[in-house]
């Protein structure tokens, strides 16, 4: 798996550096590592980072609540990415616009909240990568498949659905929060998980996530900064 989780401070999988407005850093107060997105901490408290904004088109599937989805989007903003959200519930995503602030009295162009319909996207580049969030329910339309370098598309699935299997299997990285027993069984069928991993998905705490990929199974604990907590509230599993 090329979009991998790594321990911050190691040499492997180092993400490129991006530039970001100082005001954005002040608003988000991120804990980033050279362009990587810090997802949380490992069992020993070590920071775990993904290089999700890459020179290769990238797909990430997120199975869980809006809290995690919005936090990932904010972390991408904090390392200099454009963020476009296509959603049927735009009100729930306005927190990103508030986090980005305004410039000359106008909303920041770094964040666009769109309806679930095709639109022209900003052109991504190494200096300005693009994160597209598709929040279209458990069987999302592939409105914005990642086709160019430096574009990452995140598919937000509130729960696992059998018809989402193709989207899930095409992902470079899957982030899963706690699942009920029936959905954990479906996850085991989709990703061919052994019984022990299937059971672990049903026992995750509200602040725990499993990062899943090719040759990757990494439980982690979400870590939220003070300013993120002001914007998003406490860590939680649901919406």
Keyphrases for this structure?
13 strands; 239 residues; 24% helix; alpha/beta; two-stranded antiparallel ribbon; Rossmann fold
Number of DSSP-assigned strands: 13
Q: What's the structural domain tally?
A: 1
Q: Measured on Cα atoms, how large is the radius of gyration?
A: 17 Å
The share of residues in extended strands comes to 25-35%
What's the overall geometry? Answer: globular
Describe this structure in words.
The protein is an alpha/beta fold and 239 residues long. It has one domain (22-232): P-loop containing nucleotide triphosphate hydrolases (Rossmann fold), CATH 3.40.50.300. Helices cover 24% and strands 26% of the residues. The protein has seven helices and 13 strands. The strands form two sheets. It has an eleven-stranded mixed sheet, with helices on one face. A two-stranded antiparallel sheet has the order 6-7. The chain is globular. Residues 7-35 have low confidence and may be disordered.
Short description:
With 239 residues, the protein is an alpha/beta fold. The protein has seven helices and 13 strands.
Q: Which helices and strands occur, and which strands form pairs?
A:
Layout: E1 5-7, H1 22-28, E2 37-41, E3 47-50, E4 58-63, H2 66-78, E5 82-87, H3 94-100, E6 102-103, E7 106-107, E8 111-114, E9 130-135, E10 151-157, H4 165-169, E11 173-176, H5 181-191, H6 195-202, E12 208-213, E13 216-222, H7 226-232
Parallel strand pairs: 4-10, 4-11, 5-8, 5-9, 9-10
Antiparallel strand pairs: 1-3, 2-3, 2-13, 6-7, 11-12, 12-13
């Amino acid at each position: 798996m090329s979009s991998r989780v790594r321990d911050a401070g190691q040499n492997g999988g180092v993400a490129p550096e991006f530039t970001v407005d100082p005001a954005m850093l002040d608003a988000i107060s991120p804990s980033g590592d050279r362009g990587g997105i810090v997802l949380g901490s490992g069992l020993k408290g070590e920071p775990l980072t993904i290089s999700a904004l890459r020179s290769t088109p990238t797909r990430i599937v997120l199975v869980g609540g809006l809290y995690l989805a919005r936090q990932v989007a904010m972390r991408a903003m904090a390392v200099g990415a454009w963020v476009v959200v296509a959603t049927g519930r735009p009100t729930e995503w306005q927190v990103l616009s508030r986090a980005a602030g305004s410039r000359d009295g106008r909303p920041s162009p770094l964040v666009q909240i769109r309806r679930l319909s095709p639109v022209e996207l900003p052109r991504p580049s190494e200096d300005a990568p693009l994160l597209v969030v598709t929040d279209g329910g458990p069987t999302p339309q592939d409105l914005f498949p990642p086709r160019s370098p430096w574009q990452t598309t995140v598919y937000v699935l509130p729960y696992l659905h059998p018809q989402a299997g193709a989207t899930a299997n095409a992902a470079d990285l899957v982030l899963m929060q706690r699942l009920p027993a029936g959905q954990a069984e479906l996850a085991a069928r989709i990703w061919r998980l052994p019984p022990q991993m299937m059971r672990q998905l049903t026992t995750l705490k509200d602040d725990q996530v499993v990062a899943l990929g090719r040759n990757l199974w990494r439980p982690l604990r979400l870590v939220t900064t003070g300013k993120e907590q002001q914007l998003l509230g406490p860590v939680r599993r649901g919406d």
